[in-house]
Amino acid sequence: MKNEKSISIFLIDTHALFRKGLKAILADYPNFEIIGDTSSYLQAESILQENPVDMILIDTDFYTIKNNEFFENILKKNLTKKVVALTLAKSRLEFLNAIKSGIHGFILKDEEIEFLIECIKKIYAGRFIVSESMVEKLVELLIQKSEFPINLLISNRELEVLNLIQNGYSNNQIGKHLFLSENTIKTHIKHIYKKMSVSNRKEAIEKGILWGILK
Amino acid sequence: MDREKTIVLIASANSIFRNGILKILSKRKDFQNLIIEQASDIKEVLKKYSKNKPRVLVIDYDDKNIKKKLFLNSFLQDQHNAQLLLVSLEQSGNVVFYDRQVLSTDEAHHWLQIPWNENKSFLNSE
User: Fold this and answer.
1) Other Cβ atoms within 10 Å of A148 Cβ, number
2) How large is the average pLDDT for residues B42-64?
3) How many helices (H) and strands (E) does chain B have?
4) What is the pLDDT of residues A36-77, one digit of tens each?
5) Looking at the predicted structure, is the pLDDT value of residue B81 above 70?
6) What distance separates the 2 farthest-apart alpha carbons in chain B?
7) What are B's interface residues with A at a Cβ cutoff of 8 A?
8) How confident is the model at residue A2 (pLDDT cuts 50, 70, 90)?
9) DSSP track, chain A
């Protein structure tokens, strides 16, 4: 007896063994219809244009996801109703980037399969689900967001530097880009770290995104 | 006809990965001749490896629970035919595959004399 509507799913993961294995597991569940799988965003987009799905399970480089318009594109074009990160990524920055990109769930790959199945059903039904071990990070992020200093004064130049840091530029590259010496860039970065109460680039990007001064 | 079963050991703390490999294997034509063992930590891996002498091993070697060095030490000390697929869930690039075949000294002597590019067929012939 099949009362529930089947959920059409597409898998995107560069790890072929994990992807094919998961595909085989999910295909055995009566309420799931696996439309396809790929390691490439471009190929995914082209397949999804022909066959929109209910849900995409995706693993990607969540450090650089802001540079990838894939999520926005597929959601805006209605190629899928839900996007769920299924990943090994456990850092706060990766988590934050994924959340900011508009996903509907963040599930770690080391969960049990039964948990993943339940998550797929709940997310499809409209819930937002995060793996339990990520909840603490979510709380930390919320606390940090509430600590946002209103009187923070990051200059336009410092914001430019921060943006370039986010785009992966080295101090030398930032200097060349802004026609400034490397030492001047180092001074800007020192001021940025002090104002943001951070000690490295990763933390600065994380807080910048959290505070809304970075995309 | 009672064929000898092939023991396969899948080792990873990641349940989805282990069960995924199992599903992939279950689609093989010779699946009924396979005995699939699973292990989620190094203790279980070493126990099942030494006790059951699996012919095929799929190891998630970056898994902290598996402890690659401990396993490889045990693998090197042991001597039985074994095919080992070293997979890292953290890296989606290449996997490493070892096909260890145990030879008698006579066979080893023969192996040293035949052209290297023919060794594979020599080793595969039974």
Assistant:
1) 12
2) 92
3) 5, 5
4) 999 988 899 899 999 999 999 999 777 666 556 777 778 888
5) yes
6) 46
7) 13-17, 19-24, 26-27, 87, 89-92, 95
8) very low
9) ---SPPEEEEEE-S-HHHHHHHHHHHHTSTTEEEEEEES-HHHHHHHHHHS-EEEEEE---TTSGGG--HHHHHHHTTSEEEEEEEES--SHHHHHHHHHTT-SEEEETTS-HHHHHHHHHHHHTT--EE-HHHHHHHHHHHHHHHT--TT----HHHHHHHHHHHTT--HHHHHHHHT--HHHHHHHHHHHHHHHT-SSHHHHHHHHHHTTS--
Selecting from 3.40.50.2300, 1.10.10.10, 3.10.20.30, 3.40.50.720, what CATH number does the domain B6-124 have?
3.40.50.2300
Distance from the Cα of A42 to chain B's closest Cα (Å) equals 18
Q: Is the pLDDT of residue B126 over 50?
A: no
Give the strands of the sheet with A80-87, arranged side by side.
A32-38, A7-12, A53-58, A80-87, A105-108, A129-130
Is residue B16 within 8 A of residue A25, CB to CB? The reply is yes
Closest CA relative to residue B52, chosen from B19, B16, B78: B78
Q: Can you list the domains of chain A with their CATH numbers?
A: 7-144 (3.40.50.2300), 156-210 (1.10.10.10)
The amino acid that residue B43 corresponds to is: K
Q: Show residues of chain B in contact with A20, CB under 8 Å.
A: 20, 24
Chain A: closest CA distance from residue B34 (Å) = 18
DSSP-based three-state secondary structure for B82: strand
User: Distance from B21 to chain A by nearest Cα, in Å?
Assistant: 5
Q: What is the pLDDT of residue A93?
A: 80
Separation between Cα atoms, residue B36 and residue B112, nearest integer Å: 35
Which residues in chain B have Cβ-Cβ distances shorter than 8 Å to A109?
14, 16-17, 89
Give residue limits of the domains in chain B.
6-124
Reported ipTM: the value is: 0.86
pTM passes above 0.90: no
